[in-house]
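Risk register update: the risk of archive-format incompatibility is retired. Evidence:
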Amino acid sequence: MKTDTEIKVEGTKVLIKAMGTVEAERYIALMAREKFDYTKWRKTMLPEGSVQEISKAAMQYRGKTKKSKR
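Archived output:
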């Protein structure tokens, strides 16, 4: 099991790699500034259903958007 410090360091590295230094720092500042409940946020950001159901819906959506672009 990783320590809290290891998780923080790894998370910061991932953010910087994905977003760049400035945007990662802005993201961290925004999250620290706001009264934030990650669990509530995650529930509103992710569709309900199992991974398989979400994947199936995404594949169906992708198929529809490909057909409409032809």
